[in-house]
Sequence to fold (258 residues):
Amino acid sequence: MCCPVGLVAVGAAAVQSRVVSAAPEVLKTVRLRKTFESVGAPVRALRGVDLAVDAGEFVAVMGPSGCGKSTLLNLVAGLEAPSDGEIFLAGESFAGKDESGLAHLRRRHVGFVFQFFNLLEDTSALENVALAAAIAGAPRRRAELRARELLDLLGLPDKAAELPGVLSGGQRQRLAIARALANEPTLLLADEPTGALDSAGGLEVLELFRRLHAGGQAILLVTHDERVADAAERVVRIQDGRIVGSTIAPSAVRAVRG
Fold:
C-alpha cells in the first residue's frame, strides 16, 4: 500500500508523491545480472549489481556510454528481464511475474522519463498526460483533472491544447515529466533526461527534479554528465556493468552544511 508523503509546490500548483510504507527501500536489486547474446562472445551488460534507493531519495547512476546504466533502468522498470538476480520494487519482487504482472506493477509504481521524450506527437499535451493517468486506472474526469494539475505544476498550463511538435525542447521534456508523474509513481526513473536539450533547457529540467525531490519524490536518474549528477543527493558510479563507487553528491553536502 502507498501513502502520500508530501507536496511538491512549483508555481501555483502542488502534486502529491507517494512512497511505500511497508519497506524502507522503494527499490532494491540483488546481484543483478544481464547478458545479451550476440554473434561471437555474449555481452555482459550488468555483472552483479546491488543497489537500493530509499523512500524520497534522489540517486544518480553515472558512467560512460555502454557501461550498463540504461540496461539497469530498463530492468528496474520491468521492460527487460534480468539474466540473474532479484529486483524488489515497493517491497514487491519481480520474480515469477509474467508480462501482465510486470505491466501492472509498472503502472502502479513507476514513472519513466526518456531522453528523447517518447511523446504521442499527434495528441495534445493535455491528452498525453491524461492518457497516462487513465492507463494507470484513473477515471476519465479524474485523469483530465490530474493532467491539468500537472501541466500547471510544470509551467505548461497555456500549452494544454498544443501538439508536442510546436513545443521547445525544454517544454517537451517538462511535458514528458508530467506524463511520468501521472500515476503518482513510487519511483521516478529518468534516462539521460537532459541529453537532448540545450544548456538552458537542461538547467530548467534539473531544477524541476530538485523540486520534485524536495517534495518527497524518489528518483533514480542515469547520466554520463557530472553536472547532471550533481543535482542528486547520492551518486553511484558504474563501470563495465559493475558498481565501482557511491558518494554523497556535492549538492547534498552543501545542504547538510547549510
